[in-house]
From TrEMBL:
Provenance organism: Kitasatospora atroaurantiaca
SUPFAM superfamilies the UniProt entry points to: Homeodomain-like (SSF46689), Tetracyclin repressor-like, C-terminal domain (SSF48498)
Span of domain HTH tetR-type: 14-74
Keyword tRNA processing attached: no
Protein name according to UniProt: TetR family transcriptional regulator
């Protein structure tokens, strides 16, 4: 007969896995991917290194789950910020403001998400991450086009260009660990100019 975990055992393993992920997030924010070895995460979580393999096959699998955990929070934050706004322009700029603001408050973590050299599996997740932001922005651009607030354009292409530009503009400050005050206003101005008539963003 195959062994089946009891609810109590499963609950304990689930709690341990969550503790491992939280420890990994903390290490990622402090040291980047290079500091998130299985042994280092286990030490931070207060468990034996061997216990890590009950939850993850190796560092690559841990890195992917770690990336998804952190990015899921970022996508939720920008989606919520956009939902509070009443016009497509403001929704797009809310995405940019929120993402950039959160990134600059946690530069080491944001740099790891955006640009730090990592395993190929993490690079693949970065593409998914960028597409999620692209699709959120593209939906707002398409809405603005449909309601005559923006000139006709390829909404997905414009959104992808914005995501790429914002990410590239942030890499320098994030790598330096700095938080220049002018970055977010400049990104908002750039976003409105890229979308079309910037005065429409005030509507």
């Amino acid at each position: 007969m195959a062994y089946r975990r009891t609810p109590a055992v499963q609950a304990r393993l689930d709690a341990q896995r969550e503790a491992v992920l939280q420890a990994a997030v903390a290490l990622l924010a402090e040291r980047g991917y290079g500091g998130c070895s299985m042994a280092a995460v286990a030490h931070r979580a207060g468990i034996a290194t061997g216990s890590m393999y009950q939850h993850f096959a190796g560092k690559a699998e841990l890195s992917v789950e770690l990336f998804r955990t952190v990015v899921g929070r970022e996508v939720a934050a920008v989606t919520e910020a956009a939902a509070r706004e009443s016009t497509p322009h403001r929704r797009v700029t809310a995405v940019v403001e929120t993402f950039a603001g959160r990134a600059l408050k946690a530069p080491r973590l944001a740099y790891a998400l955006l640009a730090e050299p990592a395993d190929a599996v993490v690079d693949a997740e970065r593409l998914v991450f960028r597409r999620a932001f692209r699709d959120l922005i593209a939906a707002q651009i398409a809405d603005a086009i449909a309601t005559g607030r923006l000139p006709d354009q390829n909404a997905v292409l414009t959104a992808a260009a914005l995501v790429g530009a914002v990410g590239e503009a942030l890499v320098g400050p994030l790598a330096a660990g700095s938080r220049p005050d002018e970055v977010i206003p400049a990104l908002v101005s750039f976003t409105l100019r890229a979308l079309g008539d910037p005065t429409q963003g005030e509507a």
